[in-house]
Amino acid sequence: MARVRRVGEFELIARYFAPLAREFEGAGGLQSDNAFLPADARHDLVVKTDTIVAGVHFLADEQPGRVAAKALRVCLSDLAAGGSTPFVYQLSLALPTNWQEPWVAAFAKGLAADQRRFGIALCGGDTVVTPGPLTITITAFGRVARGKGVTRAGARAGDELWVSGTIGDGALGLLAAQGALPALTARQRAYLEDRYRRPQPRCTLGPLLPGIATAMADVSDGLLADSVHIADASRLAVSIERDDVPLSPGARAAVAADPRLWAKVLGGGDDYELVMAVPVRRRAALQAAAGSAGIRITRIGCFARGSGVAVTAGGRAIKAARKGYVHF
Amino acid sequence: MARVRRVGEFELIARYFAPLAREFEGAGGLQSDNAFLPADARHDLVVKTDTIVAGVHFLADEQPGRVAAKALRVCLSDLAAGGSTPFVYQLSLALPTNWQEPWVAAFAKGLAADQRRFGIALCGGDTVVTPGPLTITITAFGRVARGKGVTRAGARAGDELWVSGTIGDGALGLLAAQGALPALTARQRAYLEDRYRRPQPRCTLGPLLPGIATAMADVSDGLLADSVHIADASRLAVSIERDDVPLSPGARAAVAADPRLWAKVLGGGDDYELVMAVPVRRRAALQAAAGSAGIRITRIGCFARGSGVAVTAGGRAIKAARKGYVHF
Predict the structure, then answer these.
(1) Nearest CA among B120, B122, B137, B127 for reference residue B101
(2) Could you say which of A37, A92, A129 has the minimum Cβ distance to residue B137?
(3) Which residue segments constitute the domains of chain B, with CATH numbers given?
């Protein structure tokens, strides 16, 4: 099929939807993924909506329990990036016309397992049938101390850029699931594939970071793109040292065998790690938080006056091949 | 296509999703459309999610501004039935692969018009592309005084059943849009069609009814079905006098020409009127509220101990042909 070049998701939002959010301050001009609403005297609600479509955002033949986990976790990852603890969610399920009850039963079982894991509950939603593919929309609600929610805007020049966990596993895991990456061991491929199929949102770390991170996002569009989102929203430039980016053994083996895969590592999405700006003076607090959450964190760059992204490898400037997963 | 008999939407919710909502009281066991979350010291948030699919819930060639209005208003109607004033909304837009920017521009213009009309703002969402039909999910938030939100449960034996506006226009309007109803004048058909295409949620009346209505729903599944939802959730029986059901001139002409259309009037959905239980002693308060909102209300039946629905016509029992729009 011929594809016409059209505006991308971010342009579409800026041009048509951000103006609709202008009058509600908690929307932050749609520059962050999350919206903030008053919750009670001491808390704000953090609200995030994500839609996933079979064959687009997950493999069309994925197990129902894993579809449930993916649908929930991509939202929970944003709530963590807002510094919030997940609370409840709304579920919209558009089932294909040939839906079968055992699929729904297994899907609900997957939701139940994640509800226990993350301490959340379903609070409402909608169920329809569509002539199109299975489509799931989750609106998830987290809670954060009043006024303490973290957004993409707020980084200051001199702040360091940190990430949780390892980067690139999501995009490489999709390749592994598609039968690519022959240079890897079966175990490495299985590890990466699991990272793609079962995101691990950083729900224990995120809520520890209000007061430490000045800006935060989750790595869903890709490390470069999500770092640039923080830089843009904070009106700063960001630089990243590629060789400091933390890789899993499988990802390290993949880029060693084929350095072109660095583009996937830095530009692919679906890692669901946290990327954040942290002032140098709060480094010890950050490390204590990460230690208490049991999650590895790595410093990979810094913010400075200016705009855009610069990537170095071993200190030498390289061209950033891809800015991230393009939704459209 | 052969369609296998499967469980319906309500059974699916009761069997698989209500158990997931058991631990969150504000979900009300998913028996009402709305969820209730604490908002601030004096308010609760009322939350509702609705998904509409092109060719299923609206005509596939509908004007983008009207699609926007429909997507928003079906949610606002539920918020009104919860007794709440609409506040903000999240929008998930799954665009078909052949989407065009002018469509999005016109859609956003429609949202903007309804934002002004109903005093609401966009607060976030998601935009994706789907190989399937245009699919829109709105999660809308209203506000109501703390603890005063109205649900489907709460009606008491002896309460009267009231409806706002006129009933049956939605289902008959879809027939008119499809070129049916030849017995009607062009003006009557246009009126009904507009009622189908542009729901008028009762956002001025609903927020006046906490403290007056003991239970409330909007007429989206059909008058009988939605009355039964209230009766079931309140563990009561409901009786309806068909000849008291308020009809528009077009609907009256339609059932006069073809009495079989009563099944559509009572069983079709998409009216987006309010149906409510009101104690006899609050009748004057109800009439004052309706007068102040400028919306007609009509008493059409009552609740009693027992279960199920009984329909009479001129006082004689008739068989209720259809319990409502079947989503699946």
Answers:
(1) B127
(2) A92
(3) 31-145 (3.30.1330.10), 160-318 (3.90.650.10)
A20/B51 CB distance under 8 A = no
For residue B320, what pLDDT band results from cuts at 50, 70 and 90? low
Which residues of chain A are within 8 Å of residue B40 when distances are taken between CB atoms?
A: 38-41
Which letter does DSSP use for residue A278 in this model? E
Kind and range of the H or E run holding B123: strand B121-130
Q: At what angle do helices B249-257 and B169-177 cross, to 10 degrees?
A: 70
B222: pLDDT strictly greater than 90: yes
Query: Exposed (0-12), middle (13-18) or buried (19+): which is B36, by Cβ within 10 Å?
Result: buried
Minimum Cα–Cα distance from B13: chain A residue: A127
Quote the tokens at residue B143.
Answer: 């506000």
Give the least confident one: A144-158, A159-173, B10-24, B266-280.
B10-24
- Nearest chain A Cα to B96, which residue? A132
Q: Pick the residue with more confidence: A157 or B320? A: A157
Closest CA of chain A from B200, distance in Å: 21
Name the residue among B273, B270, B49, B224 with its Cα closest to residue A128: B49
> Would you state the torsion angle of the CA atoms of residues A217, A218, A223, A228, taken in this order, to the nearest 10 degrees?
-20
Average pLDDT over every residue of A187-201: 94
Which of A290-299, B28-37, B161-170 is predicted with the least confidence, judged by mean pLDDT?
A: B28-37
**For residue A130, what is the nearest residue in chain B, using CA coordinates?**
B53
Per-residue model confidence as pLDDT tens digits over B128-158: 999 999 999 999 999 999 999 999 999 999 9
pLDDT tens string B14-44: 899 999 998 888 888 787 789 998 887 889 9
CB atoms near residue B75 (< 10 Å): 29
What are the backbone dihedrals phi and psi of residue B22, each rounded to the nearest 5 degrees, phi first?
A: -60, -35
Look at residue B188 and give its three-state secondary structure: helix
Report chain A's mean pLDDT, rounded to a whole number: 92
B39: closest CA among A142, A24, A38, A144? Answer: A38
Contact A108, B14 (CB under 8 A): no
The residues, any chain, with a CB within 8 Å of residue B149's CB and separated by 6 or more, are B34, B36, B44, B46, B82, B83, B84, B210
**Measured between alpha carbons, how far is B325 from B307 in angstroms, rounded to an integer?**
20
Pairing mode of beta strands A308-313, A237-241: parallel
Contact A223, A322 (CB under 8 A): no
Amino acid at B232: D
Question: What are the helix (H) ranges across A45-199?
Answer: 64-81, 101-118, 169-177, 186-197
Q: Is the pLDDT of residue B318 over 60?
A: yes
List the structure tokens of B202. Answer: 């009762």
A179 burial level (CB within 10 Å; 0-12, 13-18, 19+): exposed
Strand locations in chain A (E): 35-38, 43-53, 85-96, 121-130, 135-145, 160-164, 215-218, 237-241, 274-278, 297-304, 308-313, 316-318
**Which of A57, A122, A131 faces B55 most closely, judged by CB atoms?**
A131
State in Å, rounded, how far the first CA of chain B is from the last one. 14
Quick one: angle between helices A186-197 and A169-177, nearest 10?
Answer: 110
Distance separating alpha carbons of residues A27 and A36, to the nearest angstrom? 6
For B60, residues 6+ apart whose C-beta sits below 8 A from its C-beta are B54, B133
Check CB contact under 8 Å for B131 and A55: yes
